[in-house]
Amino acid sequence: MPKDSGIGASPKRREDVRFLTGNGNYTDDINAHGQAYVHFLRSDIAHGTLNSVDTTAAAAMPGVVRIFTAADFEGVGGVPCGWEITDRHGNAMQEPKHPVLAEGKVRHVGEPIAAVIAESLEQARDAAEAIELDIEELPAVVDMKAAVAEGSVKVHDDLTSNLCYDWGFVEENREAVNQAFQDAAHVTSLELVNNRLVANPMEPRVAIGEYNRSTDDSKLYTTSQNPHVIRLLMGAFVLGIPEHKLQVVSPDVGGGFGTKIFHYAEEAFCTFAAKACNRPVKWTSSRSEAFMSDAHGRDHVTKIELALDADNNFTALRTDTYANMGAYLSTFAPSVPTWLHGTLMAGNYKTPLIYVNVKAVFTNTVPVDAYRGAGRPEATFQLERVVDKAARELGVDPIALRRQNFITEFPYATPVAVEYDTGDYHATMDKLTEIADLSGFDARRKASVANGKLRGLGVNCYIEACGIAPSNLVGQLGARAGLYESATVRVNATGGLVVMTGSHSHGQGHETSFPQVIADMIGIDEGMIEIVHGDTSKVPMGMGTYGSRSLAVGGSAMVRATEKIIAKAKKIAAHLMEAADADIELKDGEFSVAGTDKSVAWGDVTLAAYVPHNYPLEDIEPGLEETAFYDPANFTYPSGAYACEVEVDPDTGKVSIERFSAADDFGNIVNPMIVDGQVHGGIGQGIGQALLEGCVYDEDGQLLSASFMDYAMPRADDVPFYSVDHSCQTPCTHNPLGVKGCGEAGAIGSPPSVVNAVVDALQSAGKTDVTHIDMPLSPGRIWAALNS
Amino acid sequence: MYNFEFEKPSTVADAVAALAGDEAQALGGGQTLIPTMKQRLASPSKLVSLSGITEMQGVQREGASLTIGGAVSHADVAAQATDYPALAEMAGHIGDPAVRNRGTIGGSLANNDPSADYPAAALASAATVVTNAREIAADDYFQGMFDTALEDGEIITGVKFLVPQAANYQKFVQPASRFALVGVFVAKHADGVRVAVTGASEEGVFRWSEAEAALDADFSADAIAGLTLDPSGMIGDLHGTKEYRAHLVGVMTKRAVAAAD
Ligand SMILES: Cc1cc2nc3c(=O)[nH]c(=O)nc-3n(C[C@H](O)[C@H](O)[C@H](O)COP(=O)(O)OP(=O)(O)OC[C@H]3O[C@@H](n4cnc5c(N)ncnc54)[C@H](O)[C@@H]3O)c2cc1C
C-alpha cells in the first residue's frame, strides 16, 4: 500500500500551487521603492587592453543617476574564489584578481566594463551606448592546449602562465600506475571532450541592492542557491560589510543547476552601488547576458587509459585532463575538476591503482564552474566510455565486463581517497536489465533495421558522491568554507512548526519533502509544518543547496533539531503526566506513559511550553525552539545503472532516443514522486549534453552559441518517456535518514549511455573504426562518422 | 528597444503613404523585427503595422492559383490553404504556435532569411509576389540572403501560388532554432518540376536545376539518386559543414519526391 503521508509518500508539491498560478515571488517580482536600474556595458571582444573608458557624454544623458567604472572600486576586493588547490609539486594554484568591473584589461566577451545606473533600464542602455571605450584588441587564447604551450598569449599578465594548477592524484601512485600499464595484458585508451555547457535556468539571474542610511544596513536580493554563502563571500571579501549589517535574500528561485551557487560581480555591484547612490539598484539579466556571464559548465579535454590483465580485470586507470577555468576563477571552479572529479574515478569498479592528472587552464572565455553533477559527470563519462571501448576491443559483453569488475564489499576504500559506505551494483544492474527489457533488444534492433534505421544499445553504471563533507576534511583539501548545514525548528504554542533550513529550494520541492520527515517523526499532519529558507535574517546559517546535499545534510540537520525538540517535549509531557522522562513515548502526535493509559496531545505540550503555568521551570526553559548544525561524517554514494536505446537515421545522422531506463540506488526515499522528477530532469539535461548542447567559441573568443538560436536545449520531443526505478536501496550508513541524494544522478549517469548507444549503432552498421564521437552528437557529426 | 512612432493604417494606400518617411518600416507579425529591435540591432523611427489592412487578409483559390494575403499569419495558412496541402503543412511547422499566430507570409518573404521556409515554397511554386506597385515572379524576387527585389517602402500585399500537381516540403531542422538546416520544396507542375532549397546556400534560397531536369524525365526518388551538389557554395557553421548540407539537400529532395502528393 503506498502511503499517503510521511516518509515514502508522494503528496503533490505544495509549492507548485503558487508556481503554477503565477503567484511565485521571484527576485524580479520584487520592486523596491525608488529603485534605479543598472545596465552593464560588457566587452564584445575576448581580450584587450582597456586604455580608457570615457563616461562624460554618457553621464549627461537623460535619466542617468551615476556611471561606475573600475576606478570606483579602488580599495574594494575582487570577487573571491572559495577553493584553493595545491598542485602536484605542493604549490598553491595561481589565483588572479577578479575585479567587479574590468580593470586595465578585458578578458572575455561579456566581462562588465562599466555600469550605468539610470531611472529606467532603457535610459541606462541608451547611456551605455554613449560611453566611449578605447580598447586595444589583443590576440585571444581559447584552446586549452594552446594556452599552456610555450609563448602563448597570457590571459593574466601578472601570472607566470595560463596554467592555474597541475594537479596529480594520487601523486604517490603515479609510478605504480605507470608500472601497472607496462605489465598490462591489454590497454584501452580514449581521447574525448566533455563539452562546455550553459546551464540556462529558466529564470535568469537578478540582483537588487538596497541600503538603509538610518541603520547603515545593506540588503541584497539575489537569485542564489546559497544566500548565506553570498553574504559571507561578498561581505567579508569584496565589500567589507560585516554579516550583521548585511542581509541576503533569495526568495523563489527558478532553477539553478549549479550556476546560481557562485558569487557574481553583479551582486557585489548592486549592493555597493545602492549605498553609493543611496537608492535601491536593480539588475535583471537578459538571456543574452546570461549566455556570456553565468558560469559555464564542464569543458574538459581528456585522455583516459584503462589497463586490464589477461582475465579482463581492471588493473589500473590513468587520466590526463585539461580543465577550462575561463578567464577568472569562479567561486568553486578549482574544486570541480579535482576533488569532485578525481575522487570519483574508481566508479563502480575495484581498479586498484588510479592516477589522475588535471591541468586547469585560463582562457579568454567565460568562467567555468560547477554545473549539475560538477566533476562527477566528467569522471563518469570518461570511465564508462573507456570501459565500453575495452569491452568492444576484447570482444566481451560490456555488461559482463562491468559486473566482473564491480566492487561488492562495503565499506570500500577506493584508491582515490574516498570510502563508499554502501551500494549494490549487481542489484541495480539486475533491475536495469529488467526494466530496460535488455533481452528484447535484438528483436527491436531487427525491427529498426527493417525500417532502414540503425539501432544501438548503450549501458553504463555510475557512482556519485553527494553532500560533500566533512568540513575538517574539505578544509584540508582547500575549501575555504565549511560544508555542514543548519536547521532551526520553531514550534509555536498551538503546535504548528516552522523549520528554518539552510538548504535552499529552487525547484527541488523542499517545502513538500522536508515536512514529510518531521510529520513522521512527531506524528502530526504535514500541513502543520512550514519550511522557511532563503533569507539570512531568518535562517541562522546555511551552506545552501548544490551537490545533491539538501536532504542528506540539510535534512539531517532538521532531524537533529527535531530530535532535540522531541526530547524537550518529552520532558514537558513527563511533567504534565507526572511520570519519568524515560517512560514517555511519542506516537501519532500523542505522548503517553509506557505501560499506562495516560497521554497528552502534542498540542497540550506545545501550549505548556509557551504558557508555562504547569511547567518544570526549575529544570528547563519555557519555549520550544531548537537549532542543530549537522556536519556529515562522509559523502553519500548513490549509484545506478542506465540504459539507452537509440535509432540512427543513416541518411541524415539524426539520433532519436527510443528508450531510456534508469535503475538508481538512492538509499531511503522520502518522496518517490519528487525523486522521479529529479531523475527525469537530470536525464533530460544529460541527453541535452549528449545530443544537443554545446557552447562554442571561435578562435577569436567570440561566443558563437550566444542565444537559443544556436545553443540547443532539449525540448520535450527530444526525449522519450523514461523508465525510472529506485527500488534498489542500500541506505546510507552515516546520516540519520539513510538517504543519499538524487539531484544530479540523472545528469551524471545519462551521457555515457547515450554515446555508448550511438557508437553501438554505428558499429552495427560495420563502422568498426568509429569508437567514439564527441558530444554533442549532432546529426552532422554522426553523418561524418558514418562516412569516415 | 529605441523609441519609435506607431501607425496602424487600414488600407494599403495609407500604409504606403505612412512608409514614405525615411526611417519607417513595415511591421508584419513582428516575429523577426521585434526581437531585432529589442536587441537594438534595428532602430526604425516609425513602425507601420499591416495587421489592420483587410485587403491583405484572406486565402483565395482562383483557378490554378492560390492567393494568400500579405498579412496572413502562418497559422491561418496552415488552417486555410487546404487547396495546397504541402503549403499548409509547411506553414504549420514554422517555429512554434506563438510564432505561427503572429508571423506573416509577407514578413517572411520580405525578410528572406536564408533558412526560412516560405522562400522555398514560393520559389518551387513559381509564385508571384504581389506588391502595392507591381507583380514580381519568384525567380526574380529572391536575390540572396536577406535580399529581395523589394524597393524601400514597397509592401507585399499578397502572394499568388501556382498549385502544383504534386508537392512536398521536407525540412531538416537545425536543432537549436528549428529553422531549416536544409529544407527542400519539390513541386511538380504541368510544365515541369521545380526544386527549391532553403537553409543550405550562402546565396539564400535556390533552385536545384540538375534535380529538376532529372525529375522532369522521371519523377521518382531514384531519378536523383546519383546527383550530388557542389558543397563549395553551401553554408558551413557550428550546426553542419558545407559537405553535410550538400548531402542533406540530396536526402531531403529524395524524401520530398517520395512523399509528394
Ligand atoms: C522562435 C522563432 C522561430 C521561428 N521559426 C521559423 C521557422 O521555422 N521557419 C521560418 O520560416 N521562420 C521562422 N521564424 C520566423 C517567422 O516566420 C517570422 O514570422 C517571419 O520571418 C517574419 O514575419 P513577420 O510577419 O513576423 O515579419 P516582421 O518581423 O514584422 O517583419 C520582418 C521584416 O519584413 C518586413 N515586412 C513585414 N511584412 C511585410 C510586408 N507585408 N511587405 C513588405 N515588408 C514586410 C518588415 O519591415 C521587416 O523588415 C521564427 C521566428 C521565431 C521568433
UniProtKB/TrEMBL annotation, chain A:
SMART domains: Ald_Xan_dh_C
Highest taxon of the lineage: Bacteria
Domain Aldehyde oxidase/xanthine dehydrogenase a/b hammerhead: 21-139
InterPro entries per record: Ald_Oxase/Xan_DH_a/b, Ald_Oxase/Xan_DH_a/b_sf, Ald_Oxase/xanthine_DH-like, AldOxase/xan_DH_MoCoBD1, AldOxase/xan_DH_MoCoBD2, AldOxase/xan_DH_Mopterin-bd_sf
Keywords: Molybdenum, Oxidoreductase
One term of GO molecular function: iron ion binding
Signal peptide residues on this chain, from the entry's feature table: none
Any Pfam family the entry gives: Ald_Xan_dh_C
Name this protein carries in UniProt: Molybdopterin-dependent oxidoreductase
UniProtKB/TrEMBL annotation, chain B:
A Pfam family per the record: FAD_binding_5
Keywords from the UniProt entry: FAD, Flavoprotein, Oxidoreductase
Alphabetized GO MF terms: FAD binding; oxidoreductase activity
Entries under InterPro entries matching the protein: CO_DH_flav_C, CO_DH_flav_C_dom_sf, Diverse_Substr_Oxidored, FAD-bd_PCMH, FAD-bd_PCMH-like_sf, FAD-bd_PCMH_sub1, FAD-bd_PCMH_sub2, Mopterin_DH_FAD-bd
Stored PANTHER family: XANTHINE DEHYDROGENASE SUBUNIT C-RELATED
Protein name stated in the entry: Carbon monoxide dehydrogenase
FAD-binding PCMH-type domain span: 1-166
Organism: Parasedimentitalea huanghaiensis
SMART domains: CO_deh_flav_C
